[in-house]
Fold:
Amino acid sequence: MTLVRIKIRVTGIIQGVGFRPFIYRVAMRNGLKGYVRNMGDAGVEILIEGEENAINNFLKALRDEKPPLAQIHEIVETRLEGEHKYKDFRIVRSSEEAELSGSVVPPDVAICGECLKELRDKNNPRFDYFFITCTDCGPRFTVIERLPYDRENTTMRDFSMCSFCQSEYRDPLNRRFHAQTVACPKCGPKAYLITNDGEAFPCKDPIREAGKLVSEGFIVAVKGYGGFHVAASTLKDKPLVRLRRAKHRRQKPFAIMARGLEAVKSFAEVSPKEAELLTSPMRPIVLLRKSAGYYLSELVAPGLHNVGVMLPYTGLHYMLFDEVDDPAFVMTSANPPNQPIVKDDDEALKTLGSIVDYFLFHNRRIAHRCDDSVIRVHGEKQVFIRRSRGYAPAPVMLREKARKCVLALGGELNNTACILNGEKAFISQHIGDVENVETRIFLQNAAEHLARLTNSKVEAVACDLHPKFTTTRLAEELASLNGWHFVQVQHHFAHVAALMAEHGIDELIGVCCDGYGYGVNGEAWGGEIIFASSNSLEMKRIAHLEEQPMVGGDLATRYPLRMAAGILHKRVSVDGWLEENTQHFPHGEREISLILQQLKSGYGVIMTTSCGRVLDAAAAILGLCFERTYEGEPAMKLESAAVGGKDVLQLKPIVKGGVLETTGMLLEVFEKRRKCTVTDLAFSVHDYLAKGLAELAVEKALENGVKVVGFSGGVACNEIFTTVMREFVETAGLRFIVHEAVPPGDGGLSFGQAVYAGLFQFETQPFY
Ligand SMILES: [Zn+2]
Ligand SMILES: [Zn+2]
Structure:
């Protein structure tokens, strides 16, 4: 028998996820002695003494059986000399447990299988307890006010544990050992119903009562982990009409929560990968294709081929469905237009009182708001539309350490903040559109909180190149206040840098397509091909889409017919066609004649290379969308229309001097609009643009000796686009990459800015 002493250092997301009790149990099982303790720098140190075989078993279990939420980044083992000196195995609780630099706070986690079983078990003390949790599940990020992650530093401190909960909390062999959110019906948060004028609505079982009310057609605000949802029926039109009117959301799809996976399959197609995501501990909203027999109200996701679905992630959510037959409820984030999701009770009463009939409250405060995440699956790959609950603030790991600690503030729409510290990039929860005071304050608080949680010593602040963005001004203020470097990063350069950092790539031809980004000289960009090399420190635009006129500037973004008119006008007369569509212009004929004048004179016309605007124009020509009521609407409807189509135009992409022509293609669509199906024409538009851009990118890659082509920007959320482009690039023998860890859209922009400023050293941007 050989006796061995060994010291093990483990790093990763291993604090607050039941890692030490797990180590304790495995050590006990193998008859080992020694200790486990949290280290100041987010690692865990284990010292074990015992027989060689037992130690090998321990090491194997460490890798194979780790708790579901733990993410191990590194395990370092050191054999030690010397006498065995421990008589037992202990969890050593040091007073200096404060997680230091680059430490990791776990995201919120959906209720685990064990807790769900207990919730349903009549003999369990936590039977029917809506906030049942353990070390494997429950809220984390949304309850933590400051570090270290102890109960006194969370919003659970308002609830002192009863003796039963305490006994579990103190028992290293119990699943709830040091589970900071442990609670039971006796000592934990309580739920209650109130009416929209603030009166108590007495009932024995407020949660199930709320479920019944929703099923009957009432609208109920439901307080959750990271904010309020507004719940409504998915089967009745009337509450949805009311909700759309009250929220000023005419067309924007509502996310829904289904009672279970089987229910989802009754109205949507679910691939194995999608099922895996739906049931994962992160429980994101997954965009699923509506099935042929889709029977939910058309008002849930109007004009789209897919619908955003999530599964219950707290005991409360499961209980909502207990006494109703509904397959799903609308569960949309409760936020007033352009404002962050509502998190406080008073705020909810004030801002939602006119929208909802009832409130389902609980009496635990929300420390930090956090919206649901949204994911799409392309083939086997996940694409983040929004990376938030379940993911934030877990870091994205980079291949190498950053040179500088950077705070990046992102852009303007669908924003996030990002802290780059060492080889970790911490992206904040979803912040939203930073256009007004409330969202700006939210952004600032979220950024400060993230910096504190990760104990980051920021040296530089990064933002967009747009001089008028709120985030640019905030970055300037922070830079001068704190003496930080101030770094502005061009929008599409940031997207491409994000792609490179995510995949650890030095040289890339990046195709970057979206709606709008401020170009290096102030032009409107959005369909760019970018060469980037961290070897030669270069980042530059080398090709792009044809410049097209936006008649009336931003008005052309809101009314895609204007975009179509501007493009078609270059080759044909559009007067007659516009007159046919008079009803789609808010000011009718007067507006049309002004548009025609502007097209002739060029006055009030802005040029753009945006890919999004070309897709908008196509959507208008095909009659799919005449007014954009939410970000990306025309392009999303065009994609939905294109599903199952074929390329009927068979156009060869026309490229002149690094510019991909788009006018001729749209003209063909216009001329064939009555001869071919909308589906085929919508598909043809995708095919032309995706192939054209891919061809151009491949040509530039060969010219520059680059082996990888990447695709970023909001258009990369589009599955048809991505599929066509991938096939073309891979057929040419090059590697094709897309985002997997951060959103391709503007939710990933802060990450791109941070790595641009702190990881790479490109010399094409102004550094101050
Ligand atoms: Zn649990
Ligand atoms: Zn209790």
Q: What stands out?
A: The chain has a mean pLDDT of 94. The pocket of zinc ion (ligand 1) is lined by residues 112, 114-115, 133-134, 136-137 (CB under 6 Å).
